């Protein structure tokens, strides 16, 4: 395409170039690096899992291999969503709110923070450190939550990205 937009790989630099929001440009850099980092970690884990289970028959092991990829998509997808939404908006010249780019950047940063909160919730009890200072009550509260609750903050933040996109697009 003549406009430099070539799917996922081309959408990142395209959105960066076309947006006038500095906050969004910062998010493109940070969000893309975080998504690449998550992809590297998930793919490394998948390679280790394949190596450990190479001689095993299919069944449940095939499911666990697929689950690695699915988890990677659920983590990296919402990180890239604001960038892809903004690239699509600029490419198609869709009329949106003046705050569209910057608000999607804010929701992307919220998702990134929610990943951190989810990770704190899922820390194993033997690996939890004693926290002192201003953040001690918050960290203590997060440690006390059941580990399965670690999926709630990223899920809510991902929904907020979609709601922001839909609300600001009309």
TrEMBL record:
<keyword id="KW-0472">Membrane</keyword>
<feature type="transmembrane region" description="Helical">
    <location>
        <begin position="67"/>
        <end position="88"/>
    </location>
</feature>
<dbReference type="InterPro" id="IPR058369">
    <property type="entry name" value="DUF8056"/>
</dbReference>
<feature type="transmembrane region" description="Helical">
    <location>
        <begin position="26"/>
        <end position="47"/>
    </location>
</feature>
<dbReference type="Pfam" id="PF26243">
    <property type="entry name" value="DUF8056"/>
</dbReference>
<feature type="transmembrane region" description="Helical">
    <location>
        <begin position="141"/>
        <end position="164"/>
    </location>
</feature>
<keyword id="KW-0812">Transmembrane</keyword>
<protein>
    <recommendedName>
        <fullName>DUF8056 domain-containing protein</fullName>
    </recommendedName>
</protein>
<keyword id="KW-1133">Transmembrane helix</keyword>
<feature type="domain" description="DUF8056">
    <location>
        <begin position="1"/>
        <end position="168"/>
    </location>
</feature>
<feature type="transmembrane region" description="Helical">
    <location>
        <begin position="100"/>
        <end position="121"/>
    </location>
</feature>
